[in-house]
Amino acid sequence: MTIRRNVNDDYSIASRDRLERIILTITKPSYTLALGFESLRVQNRSRLRRLLRKLVRQHNWKEASGVLSVLLKGTGKDRSPAKNRTKYWVTMELLKHINGECINPTKILRIYEIWMKKIGLSKKWSIKDRFMVRLEFILFCLTQGNVEDAHQAVICLMQEREFGSDPISNMVVGLTFYQLWYSAIPKEMQLKDLDESFTPLHSEMSGTIFNTPKNSVGHDAVDIHEADSSIKEKDIHGADSPFHCDSYTSIMLEKDNALDQSFKRQGFYMNTVKESGQEKSSFSNHGDDMPHASIFYAHGLDSWLLPLRLLRTSENLEAFTYLHKEKLNDYYKNAVKYLRLALYSTPPLFEAVLPLIQMLLLGDQVKEALNELEKFVCNSDTTLPLRLKASLLEQFNSKNYVKISACFEDILKKDPTCSHSLARLVSLHQNGDYSTEQLLEMIALHLDATYAECNTWKEFAACFLKLSECEEDRMSMCLDGNEDGPKQSYSIRFNRIPKNLTDGILGKSWRFRCKWWLTRHFSRSILNSEFAAGDLQLLTYKAASASHLYGIESEYVAKVYACLENKNKDLLLFLQMHMQNSVGLCKNFDKNL
């Protein structure tokens, strides 16, 4: 009897609850929004965000503005960093598209202020979420030339407890002090226009890239300089390449066992075979001797390294030198301090390298800048520190050919597509300051990664030609060394190729490279496409290279030769010269390809 009464009571309670829900549904429709596992309002907000992102991707700004308006009204209390980022970023993009280039920076500043208030300083958000909007606000102020607002924001940021542990915050603070210091130097010394191309008098450089402090304030400044050389090692030595470490090994072997002969512009003087194992380097190397390591006497230093107008008259230079020393104030010291903190953080923030080096150079601390670069060239996966080091060495230690060439070699090892570094090595070689065998290896590494232009192939073929001539000179000197004694005729047959290209690890590397290039550079389909393009110079220089690699019987050489017979006699003579002095590298390997 007791059990039956309890069952009836439970039934009555369930019926009463169901009846109350029905009444609430009729009298208060919003009650239904709380039913189910997820609120209908939350679902609608998610739909609006997805729709907004879709419209922005389609650049449908008119429809996006309507959706954004509804979303802003319905999410006024939302403090989520990710959700607020979507709203306020789209708001700023809409302003840019509506107003074009005439956008009022004050409106953007107000959006940032509202955005930062919405996120607040809640401890539940990560350091990145709490600081990121404030950092973006500071960078926006810097790009607009609003240094004072950026400075005030930096002061507030530095008061946060977690500030010191955030590398990006340190870098942005360093950049702000950089701009504060830079804006205080004489106006005639500053580079105002981001696209301004100022080249000092007697400049030895051309086609430079400029990077004033304004366009150094973000990651993009570094990325711009890396854009032309972004290929990674894994892309080079991937599935398309039959060898992963042979190129690197061959280059290191080449550096350790380089002939280092003394080359002259008009020809080559080679030692005897007996002396070849004991060659002495004749390349100039003045060690760390940098007698003119001062920016005030620099000629041709790129403006992206030193964003400064250097006055050339002695009177102005003396006045500026005195003023410069007075200007190394707290702003300068703080800029160097916080950029260093960002660079030496764990993990290092390598984006701080360029602005730090710029600051050290602006402070006339050339040796300190080189010391900083020395610490990071080995630890960085990017080529930027090496590029900076090479530029400084060329400017302030231009006779140290060994160090300069080593920098460009290291750049090519990390980024084999870098045509600028290869061009600098070619220039050193033409001046007699870089060996033919080393240049041959560097060009080969470049060709492993690129489909180069005709001049690269021309230089590649010329290296083989010079090496073959060097081998002939070696043999001639051995036979005619005793000029006072009776002369005797010899009928001899000698190898035109240095043994280190065919033997050992280096020989193995070249063996695989030749086999790979048959499909990469000298296949029948590539030849047909090059014939269709009609670039006879490229065909000629590639055929000359192929004659040294595969011999004059190569299909590529034969077809190009037949083509040139009817079209261009000058290029035909060039190809004939290389065919007559063909090295035939593949024939000297232990096993035919």
UniProtKB/TrEMBL annotation:
Alphabetical list of Pfam families matching this protein: TAF1_subA
Cross-referenced SUPFAM superfamilies: TPR-like
GO process annotations (BP): transcription by RNA polymerase I
InterPro entries: TAF1A (IPR039495), TPR-like_helical_dom_sf (IPR011990)
Domain of life: Eukaryota
Name of this chain's protein: Uncharacterized protein
GO cellular component: a single term: RNA polymerase I transcription regulator complex
